[in-house]
TrEMBL record:
Species assigned in the record: Biomphalaria pfeifferi (Bloodfluke planorb)
Domain Integrator complex subunit 5 C-terminal: 242-954
Pfam families: INTS5_C (PF14838), INTS5_N (PF14837)
Domain Integrator complex subunit 5 N-terminal intervals: 14-223
Domain of life, per lineage: Eukaryota
One Gene Ontology biological process: snRNA 3'-end processing
InterPro entries: INTS5, INTS5_C, INTS5_N
PANTHER family in UniProt: INTEGRATOR COMPLEX SUBUNIT 5
Name this polypeptide is given: Integrator complex subunit 5
Length: 966
């Protein structure tokens, strides 16, 4: 007992001594060391719980001194002769002891110690943050992350944060409202210097802090709105201090915990829909919107999910909840609507969904069976919001245009990023939605600039299916050009970039083909409208027309599309637009080649697709129109003449004009694919040839490898009316390439030939009467091309006619020319049509000479009684004399000898042709028309003619006036 009593006395004595020492050290300074005072405070904290407030106040001063020492450590000038490291080490040692004691108290009895210690620590952290905010090294720190790192690098502050975190961990499960309220109170009192504390604690307990912060903020917001119900809503809410604190806390946590914030916000909204209290149902949505108005980050987090849950039924429920509030506080409700408009204008994320929600609610287009529609009051409210929003956007865009200061319109920036979706929405809308969306698109284009505006206009061209939808192009263009004059040029760039990518990426795709075709048809409609405006003098020039004239390279690629409709639409567009004067040589060459290909393709389609002949006719006429326009370039005339003539005699096309394909070098016998040449006879012939050195290759003749020609697929012959029609079209197209002036004198093809109704085609002379003179350069090219086609070599292609007996030397060559011309009757038609040009006949002279030689060779040895009994030679002679006469190579009356051919014998016909040959030999051809037309024939050239007339006077007497001057 004595021992126990002695121990108690000793403890009491120590306690009294430590208490006196703590009181003496706290009141006076200098008599007791820092370590002794700290030990006394720690002793009292462990043994005397009622002294905790005094002890904590003492340690608050200790933490203050330690923080001041740490922050001033870098400033060496403030330590006059003292050792700052030793002082800081002494302070940290004492603070570590008290930190350990407090942490042990919290772990052992959290319910008693955690509220007290957390309140002390939070207040101390807030006070220190505010006190040393202007300290050098702190005031220059800008971002919250830098502030947090700076304070956590301070050991005393880190100890306090460790104590605070441990308190929160102990209370978050049992009393979360207490710790969150304390955090909010400290945040309100010491903000913004306290934000780093909130950020750190919130990152440690994100879900709890976010949920409790929102609930505390909503509770305080409801209290503020109830207390200030008779005042202006916005002013009363802004006086609530915790709102800014809530926004700050959530803003700090949003960087890493945005999903948790999103879930908490939506949970709060959904809870308000089913809440039992009127205040919660009415104030939750305004509270959320007020938070969003104070932080763009919270606005972007809240907007997408909130818009997605606002169905018609939810909107109607909100209307029922707000009805009483609207009637009792109209000014507050109007402020709420203005806040909604303000927030919509600030929304960049989900902007298109917001507009779609407003349109869907204000003007529902489709009434689904069983679905709830917005009530009339809700529709009227959304219409009012839409009008106010459009007015605000218009004012912002105009202010941006007129002032140097750029007005930020996040909604329009978000819509610009979803311009394709917004354009599709416009094209699918009708009624009042259309002008709203047109204004939105116009403001968006003016806000975002030329590229966005051009993208929207090009989307309309690619997506519009009706004239009404395409009409939005003009509305949007009219509004955009007020601020972007060059928008059409950029639009054409976008359109043709899409056309190029669509045709090169997946040319066989059905979707790509339909998009390309739709775009080309819409461009065609735009061009027609522009041409009408120019015709009415509403426009002096058209940017669309001028821009399309520079895109013939892309249109040229589209002409060869596998889709016939695309090819025809591109051809029609090219014809409507016309061709500029500065087309490059390479592009002109491509255009001529492609159009020539399409020309023959159209003739094939007209022959093969009788049910769709009108479409093929239109394609043919479009090709002829393009050829006529391009023929104003001298360079393209020659190209077209080459491409058309060479194409007409090709294997694939010659049957269109009644021709037959025979390989020029086919001189091997064949029949049924079996070689009938005797190899024995071939070797006998070899033995009779000139002796050569006897190599192994010359001892034995093994025949010709692959002598048997390939089997040709039979080509179904065309009807005569189709052949005549094709020949007329081909000849007329050549006239378009060759004629001198630009006046178009041809009639519509449907009026010239109509095989179904039995109308006869236009006669050759009729066609000539409608045509104009051929140019000299074209005539020269045309004659040279025909000579190249009919003569496989250039030997004996001199234009001068040799002695008639010289034809025996060129018999094989002349026969080949005759055969080629017989297989290609379209060339005969061309020769007849263009022989009125002396230049053409001059360059065609080698062919005419060969034809006359073949006819003369046959008539000279013929045993027929009449020349007409040799039909091919008879017809050929008449055509030949007719061509020579038109080309002024033989003058009258010698040019009338063709009238004698039906009555003379073959030999007499030979003599007449011989007379013509000798005249042409004595009067060589010339390409000068005046010289050619001034020639005459004397009696020496008419001697043979007169003799034949006298010998056959009984049946030729009526022709004497044609040859005698009577």
């Amino acid at each position: 007992m004595a021992t126990v009593g002695g121990d108690s006395l000793s403890v009491s004595r120590d306690l009294r001594r430590q208490l006196n020492q703590f009181l003496q050290g706290s009141i006076t300074s200098g008599n007791i060391s820092y370590e002794a005072l700290s030990n006394s405070a720690l002793y009292l904290l462990r043994t005397v719980p009622v002294a905790r407030h005094a002890v904590l106040e003492h340690y608050a001063l200790s933490f203050d001194e330690a923080i001041n020492t740490h922050l001033s450590f870098a400033d060496r000038n403030s330590w006059s002769g003292q050792d700052p490291e030793a002082i800081q080490q002494s302070q940290l040692s004492a603070l570590q002891d008290v930190t350990g004691v407090l942490l042990s108290f919290i772990k052992s009895n959290a319910e008693a110690w955690a509220p007290v210690v957390s309140s002390w620590a939070l207040s101390l952290l807030g006070l220190m943050s505010s006190k040393y905010a202007a300290k050098r090294g702190v005031q220059h720190v800008t971002s919250l992350n830098e502030v947090l790192q700076m304070w956590m690098a301070c050991p005393p502050a880190k100890m306090l944060m460790e104590i605070t975190t441990e308190c929160f961990a102990a209370m978050v499960g049992s009393a979360p409202d207490i710790c969150v309220d304390a955090l909010l109170e400290a945040s309100v009192r010491y903000s913004p210097h306290f934000d780093w504390v909130v950020a750190h604690i919130g990152s440690c307990f994100p879900r709890t802090i976010i949920t409790r912060v929102l609930n505390c903020g909503l509770k305080d917001y409801c209290t503020g709105s109830v207390d200030g119900s008779d005042k202006d809503a916005s002013s009363s809410r802004m006086k609530v201090p915790k709102m800014a604190s809530v926004v700050g806390i959530l803003g700090h946590l949003a960087a890493k915990h945005s999903q948790d914030i999103r879930k908490a916000l939506m949970a709060l909204f959904e809870a308000s829909l089913h809440s039992d209290t009127q205040s919660s149902r009415v104030t939750t949505l305004p509270f959320l919107l007020q938070l969003a108005s104070m932080s763009d980050l919270l606005l972007n987090i809240l907007t997408p999910d909130l818009v997605s849950v606002l169905s018609s039924s939810v909107v109607n429920q909100l209307h029922r909840q707000f009805t009483h509030w609207k009637r009792s506080s109209p000014s507050e409700y109007n402020s709420f609507l203005n806040l909604v408009v303000h927030l919509i204008a600030k929304c960049k994320v989900g902007s298109c969904d917001i507009i779609n929600f407003l349109l869907r609610t204000a003007l529902p287009q489709e009434e689904s069976a069983g679905s709830e529609l917005p009530v009339d009051e809700v529709r009227d409210t959304c219409i009012e919001i839409m009008h106010i929003l459009l007015f605000e956007l218009q004012r912002g865009v105009l202010a941006r245009k007129g002032n140097a200061v750029v007005v930020d319109l996040p909604l329009l920036s978000g819509l610009a990023e979803q311009s394709t979706k917004l354009t599709t929405l416009l094209l699918q809308s009708y009624g009042k939605r259309v002008p709203w969306l047109q204004k939105l698109l116009t403001y968006t284009s003016l806000q975002a600039g030329e590229n966005c505006s051009a993208s929207m206009l090009s989307n309309i061209v690619f997506s519009a299916n009706t004239p009404q939808q395409l009409g939005t192009f003009y509305k949007l263009r009219q509004g955009s050009e007020l601020g972007i004059p060059s928008v059409i040029s950029s639009t054409l760039v976008h359109i043709f970039n899409k056309l190029t990518s669509a045709t090169t990426s997946q040319p066989e795709s059905t979707a790509n083909s339909s998009n390309v075709l739709r775009a080309l048809r819409n461009l065609e409609k735009l061009v027609n409208v522009e041409k009408v405006k120019i015709k009415r003098k509403a426009l002096t020039c058209s940017t669309i027309l001028e821009g399309l004239k520079q895109r013939h390279s892309v249109l040229c690629d589209l002409l060869l599309s596998a889709n016939e409709d695309i090819s025809m639409c591109a051809l029609r567009l090219m014809t409507l637009v016309g061709f500029p004067n500065d087309l490059s040589i390479s592009l002109l060459t491509r255009l001529c080649s492609v159009i020539a290909i399409i020309f023959f393709t159209s003739l094939h389609k007209n022959t093969e697709q009788k049910d769709n002949a009108n479409k093929a006719d239109r394609m043919t006429q479009l090709c002829m129109s393009c050829i006529e326009q391009l023929s104003r370039y001298p360079f393209t005339k020659s190209l077209f003449i080459h491409y058309l003539l060479e194409g007409a005699v090709q294997k694939e096309n010659c049957h269109l004009f009644g021709g037959r394909w025979q390989p020029a070098t086919s001189n091997t016998p064949h029949g049924n694919g079996v070689d009938t040449v005797s190899l024995l006879e071939e070797n006998r012939q070899q033995s009779l040839s000139i002796a050569l050195p006897r190599f192994h290759s010359s001892v034995y003749h093994g025949g010709i490898i692959r002598q048997i020609p390939k089997t040709q697929l039979p080509v179904k012959p065309l009807q005569k009316s189709q052949v005549v029609r094709n020949c007329l079209i081909f000849t007329e197209t050549l006239w378009l390439c060759c004629r001198e002036n630009r006046q178009r004198c041809r009639q519509d093809l449907s009026g010239q030939v109509n095989s179904d109704t039995g109308h006869e085609p236009m006669e050759t002379d009729q066609v000539n009467r409608h045509m104009t003179a051929i140019s000299e350069s074209s005539a020269r090219t045309l004659g040279c091309v025909i000579v190249e086609i009919l003569t496989l070599d250039t030997l004996y292609n001199d234009v001068h006619w040799q002695d008639p007996d010289f034809r025996k030397v060129t018999t094989e060559r002349d026969t080949l020319v005759w055969k080629r011309l017989e297989d290609l009757p379209v060339v005969w038609n061309v020769i007849q049509e263009f022989s009125s040009s002396c230049v053409f006949v001059y360059y065609l002279s080698p062919v005419l000479r060969s034809l006359m030689a073949v006819i003369m060779n046959h008539l000279e040895v013929s045993r027929e009684t009449r020349m007409r009994n040799c039909p091919k030679q008879f017809e050929g002679a008449i055509k030949l004399v007719h061509c020579l006469t038109k080309g002024s190579m033989i003058p009258p009356p010698l040019s009338n000898v063709a009238e004698l051919f039906p009555f003379v014998s073959p030999y007499e016909g030979y003599l007449l042709l011989l007379t013509l040959w000798r005249y042409i030999k004595e009067n060589p051809p010339t390409e000068f028309e005046k010289e050619q037309s001034s020639r005459t024939c004397d009696t020496s050239h008419m001697f043979v003619v007169h003799s034949i007339l006298h010998a056959n006077i009984n049946h030729m007497g009526h022709l004497c006036p044609r040859f005698f001057n009577m």
